[in-house]
């Protein structure tokens, strides 16, 4: 039983990675599943969303600069 078990284990060890590689490299599966799922999770940005994000970043930057300026003035 020892040799048969080892042959089975070696076959399993070699077959599983090859099968996973083959399945994951199917172009149809990739296009249908992965790209669709990516678009569901991260939809394309809209220009208004990007603009709002930029404005938010600018407000936060100005707040930080004002805070640092006040701290510098108080310590002087």
From TrEMBL:
The keyword Cell membrane does not apply. It is found in: Membrane; Mitochondrion membrane. The keyword Transmembrane applies. It holds the Pfam family Pet100. It is a single-pass membrane protein. GO terms for molecular function: unfolded protein binding. Its main location: membrane. GO terms for biological process: mitochondrial respiratory chain complex IV assembly. Keywords: Membrane, Mitochondrion, Transit peptide, Transmembrane, Transmembrane helix. InterPro entries: Pet100 (IPR018625). GO terms for cellular component: mitochondrial inner membrane. It comes from the Eukaryota. Belongs to the PET100 family. This is Protein PET100 mitochondrial. It comes from Marmota monax.
């Amino acid at each position: 039983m020892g040799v048969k078990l080892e042959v089975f284990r070696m076959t399993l060890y070699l077959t599983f990675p090859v099968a996973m590689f083959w399945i994951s490299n199917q172009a149809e599966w990739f296009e249908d599943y992965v790209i669709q799922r990516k678009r569901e999770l991260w939809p394309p940005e809209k220009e208004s969303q990007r603009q709002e994000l930029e404005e938010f970043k600018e407000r936060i930057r100005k707040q930080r600069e004002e805070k640092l300026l006040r701290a510098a003035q108080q310590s002087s």
